[in-house]
Prior knowledge:
The structure holds 3 protein chains of 3 kinds.
Chain A: H1 27-32, H2 37-45, H3 48-58, H4 70-75, E1 86-91, H5 100-107, H6 109-123, E2 127-132, H7 137-152, E3 168-173, H8 183-190, E4 214-218, H9 219-223, H10 225-231, H11 233-238, E5 240-241, E6 253-254, E7 256-263, E8 269-274, H12 279-286, E9 296-300, E10 309-310, H13 320-325, E11 334-339, H14 344-358, H15 364-381, H16 387-400, H17 408-422, H18 424-429, H19 433-446
Parallel strand pairs in A: 1-2, 1-4, 2-3, 7-11
Antiparallel strand pairs in A: 5-6, 7-8, 9-10, 9-11
Chain B: H1 28-38, H2 48-58, H3 65-74, H4 79-88, E1 100-105, H5 108-112, H6 115-126, E2 133-134, E3 140-145, E4 157-159, E5 162-164, H7 169-177
Parallel strand pairs in B: 1-3
Antiparallel strand pairs in B: 1-4, 2-3, 4-5
Chain C: E1 10-13, E2 16-19, H1 26-32, E3 56-59, E4 66-67, E5 78-80, H2 84-99, H3 115-123, E6 141-143, E7 147-149, H4 159-167, E8 173-176, E9 183-186, H5 199-203, E10 209-211, E11 224-229, E12 238-244, E13 247-253, H6 266-270, E14 285-287, E15 293-295, H7 298-314, E16 321-324, H8 329-341, E17 346-349, H9 369-374, E18 378-379, E19 390-393, H10 401-407, E20 411-414, E21 426-429, E22 438-441, E23 447-450, H11 464-475, H12 484-493
Parallel strand pairs in C: 1-5, 16-17, 16-19, 17-18, 19-20, 20-21
Antiparallel strand pairs in C: 1-2, 3-4, 3-5, 6-7, 7-10, 8-9, 11-12, 12-13, 14-15, 14-21, 22-23
Flavin mononucleotide binds next to strand 4 and helix 17 of chain A.
Amino acid sequence: xxxxxxxxxxxxxxxxxxxxxxxxxxxxxxxxxxxxxxxxxxxxxxxxxxxxxxxxxxxxxxxxxxxxxxxxxxxxxxxxxxxxxxxxxxxxxxxxxxxxxxxxxxxxxxxxxxxxxxxxxxxxxxxxxxxxxxxxxxxxxxxxxxxxxxxxxxxxxxxxxxxxxxxxxxxxxxxxxxxxxxxxxxxxxxxxxxxxxxxxxxxxxxxxxxxxxxxxxxxxxxxxxxxxxxxxxxxxxxxxxxxxxxxxxxxxxxxxxxxxxxxxxxxxxxxxxxxxxxxxxxxxxxxxxxxxxxxxxxxxxxxxxxxxxxxxxxxxxxxxxxxxxxxxxxxxxxxxxxxxxxxxxxxxxxxxxxxxxxxxxxxxxxxxxxxxxxxxxxxxxxxxxxxxxxxxxxxxxxxxxxxxxxxxxxxxxxxxxxxxxxxxxxxxxxxxxxxxxxxxxxxxxxxxxxxx
Amino acid sequence: xxxxxxxxxxxxxxxxxxxxxxxxxxxxxxxxxxxxxxxxxxxxxxxxxxxxxxxxxxxxxxxxxxxxxxxxxxxxxxxxxxxxxxxxxxxxxxxxxxxxxxxxxxxxxxxxxxxxxxxxxxxxxxxxxxxxxxxxxxxxxxxxxxxxxxxxxxxxxxxxxxxxxxxxxxxxxxxxxxxx
Amino acid sequence: xxxxxxxxxxxxxxxxxxxxxxxxxxxxxxxxxxxxxxxxxxxxxxxxxxxxxxxxxxxxxxxxxxxxxxxxxxxxxxxxxxxxxxxxxxxxxxxxxxxxxxxxxxxxxxxxxxxxxxxxxxxxxxxxxxxxxxxxxxxxxxxxxxxxxxxxxxxxxxxxxxxxxxxxxxxxxxxxxxxxxxxxxxxxxxxxxxxxxxxxxxxxxxxxxxxxxxxxxxxxxxxxxxxxxxxxxxxxxxxxxxxxxxxxxxxxxxxxxxxxxxxxxxxxxxxxxxxxxxxxxxxxxxxxxxxxxxxxxxxxxxxxxxxxxxxxxxxxxxxxxxxxxxxxxxxxxxxxxxxxxxxxxxxxxxxxxxxxxxxxxxxxxxxxxxxxxxxxxxxxxxxxxxxxxxxxxxxxxxxxxxxxxxxxxxxxxxxxxxxxxxxxxxxxxxxxxxxxxxxxxxxxxxxxxxxxxxxxxxxxxxxxxxxxxxxxxxxxxxxxxxxxxxxxxxxxxxxxxxxxxxxxxxxxxxxxxx
Lengths: 452, 180, 514
Ligand SMILES: Cc1cc2nc3c(=O)[nH]c(=O)nc-3n(C[C@H](O)[C@H](O)[C@H](O)COP(=O)(O)O)c2cc1C
Ligand code: SF4
Ligand code: SF4
Ligand code: SF4
Ligand code: FES
Ligand code: FES
């Protein structure tokens, strides 16, 4: 198929190296392809601190949405403690539009487990809980299968790879709650409670699962670790977008990333790229671009929880800092595309409903505010919205953002606020004629003289 | 190439067994499983979610008050705690769940790709007016679900624990017709 | 208290530095120094939930307001509770709380003591809350026999749930559902195992939990409230008694960290029914020649009582005065004098249960049994020892029918007319705990003030001390009549009493720690 850009941005198969391989989820095939070699290397020739240093050198950033440097997070775990330390693998993947972790778990579960075990070795954990959303039964099945195989082969349990390292791995199935992807809600849920996020501090690294030090990372984050151990952190850091030399605090976006596209495109899917491909390249060259006869109106670049970019704003590099600079965020790097047939008011209602539905219900602004917003969007859709409702919405965004225990409420505000601002005209178009007239007058009053 | 991860391996679509009220929890069939689950965690409470999954499967797709009380007693938890957990998570049912359970994803990607039509079709075929209810013939419980993680194959539905992707209203009709 | 030389760490609140202890949160330090920080989900006795977001304060140097209830103090921390940002943040939260709140204040029992009302007035609820349809949730759900839950009024602060988890460890409640359908749920059994359940009604910052006993009985602003103590057992939980038009309407615990913290038991709370009995004796009564009861004035009755007692003394029957174990020190003191004049002694009787627990309820039910013992009063345990000339009875359980019948008393001071035994010829009304003033000694040896209100019973009831001393004057012209102030002076100095823990001398109730 003819690509629009002269040179197609290449896929880089690091995490996805086994995706095309038949039955790579079985031990024999995976092992043949190198599974557990990095674990053996780490256990055989590296100290835990060396592992952490290697990951720090790689500048690997969390793939679960927030992009926190992984090696730094590990180094917060206290070294001296009598408590059992835990690794919790965040495989809740409930972020809408996001399905990348599922590919890893279904197609290469041994890679996931190996990443967990190396992490456990690095921080001194003896137990790994993989918290998989309940809606992923195949992931659960494949992970359990892989764990039992690995146990038989001596890679899970006592004396792993013949070394003095003991660590068990358990798959814990969620039961349908987006909020349980939030790390502290995940811990509550793991402990058998309602998924109510905890107030931080204390941070999980100090007091996490069962009040013990716990590392929580995304599936994709830890799936990167075997490669980093095998090839060195420096090799990983060479890939992707380097840190901004002008900014000493910049971490850049190193390595590769599973990225996906869904929604109004020809060929939705997931691919692995080095950071740096533009959103447009990904959508047009890999996802086949807009559907026949349509144009792209808006894209949320990573999941549902980030501000939208309009069809004109797609030439931005997929990277933590680039997307932030563009007024959005990388999120899960799984983009949701909306084309010109999409009614943005209804899209807002749909998005607000999601967050309202998934709010854990603890904090007043989130519990009440998300529903309130949904109701206002509904009113707009019914033709009863007013200009003051738009002001009210802006007010609510301000009242909700940053006022809650966890970031779900912020995640609700960001896409909605960006849509309301960038597509105000669609809201106005649904107002009564009087309101529309008032809006037009206010607009022309704002225009400098002579400009039509 | 972009391989499609299979959402789930096809299983027979069989109607659920009717709800059984066990004399005590865990019933003999689940004893070994429950003990295995308990052994995985440092606290009994942590076994609650997995054991509720087992209880729901055993109970024919829902957790009856009797099962709920049994689980609470088994895990030394207050019945209120168990009920609180049960009603927090959308995969658990606290009311009879019909012979088949159908989830229709309603979130953005599926919404863009035809979820509303699927939902309408599902409700119509199931003979219910609202989601979350079982139709009069007791065949289907239709539930609205948030993103099922199958967005690249939207619109997605689940029927009795099996995912179906790229579903058309006609395809859904066929699927539902295949259910007793 | 410490002699350490390093300066105490301080936090700055509204520009003033205040010392704090390790582990202190901003709200604790603020409250300790009388700085108001509104709060719903915070309670000093429980782990912070941080969910209501009403306690937000400005942190100097940060654009984001923070919750004071969960914010740990650290050196250099400076917050403002009174700045524009803090006010705005709270007003925002208020608006959110009200958007789904059914504004049924006119029929809500909490009206008048609702923190939602309070703060919304304080914060100025002038902001428009648009007419979005409100979320429908269950109303009128029974929580046990005594409590009714309204999920629409509930602001999901989880105080009630945490109470049952952290204070009583009985776990009858949990939050259920999620999102805007989140609500409090109860165990399927639907009964509380804790005997302290009704504290959640007081804890509830809004009118979501109401007491069936009190629901719709009265608007608060018509009631009279007095700070007093519960006389249900010898713990002597500090309470506020609410009464109106001759009836006790409710008891609520009042904080006293040394006695009951913030709580009271359900039995104590509901243990006021005898005060409202349909058979309350409201005026004195004297038997006429035929043995029939006739209403009398106090004067007439005092005369008749003096005569009867003089006759009784003459007959050389036991001249004891048998008191209810809930009688006050003043009453016991005067009873002792009266008994002496009759050639007997003051004695008391009080029920002893077997239901004491490790929290508040104690086996000793005589609210002043400890005081009686301190005064050297003998305890009457069975009918054989019950002989007396005068009975003083508030509660049936303390001086039950068999003791009353066996007493052979001729004069009785009773709360309930049905407690007058056949031998009695003159009966005086005796105020319930809610009408009498006086000192009680609890199990821990604390002397606490029982305070009455005229709203709580028949208005004609005269204090026992006054009536008994008039009788004494009749029997013994030399008797030196003491008013309550004079009695108190004597009591404070009395052997056995002087060593007890007395509140500072004043006519005010036992100190109320805030
Ligand atoms: C509402 C909410 C939902 C989240 N869901 C997920 C999720 O499904 N998967 C995930 O890995 N991280 C999720 N996160 C982020 C986690 O809290 C956490 O930052 C992440 O697991 C850390 O791992 P990382 O550093 O490897 O990214 C969520 C965060 C929030 C606030
Ligand atoms: S922000 Fe929302 S989801 Fe997060 S803790 Fe608060 S109520 Fe729960
Ligand atoms: S019932 Fe009252 S105390 Fe309980 S959560 Fe609701 S508002 Fe809070
Ligand atoms: S513990 Fe005793 S004093 Fe306290 S409320 Fe109960 S009965 Fe009254
Ligand atoms: S939006 Fe339907 S599966 Fe993700
Ligand atoms: S009182 Fe602080 S959040 Fe509720």
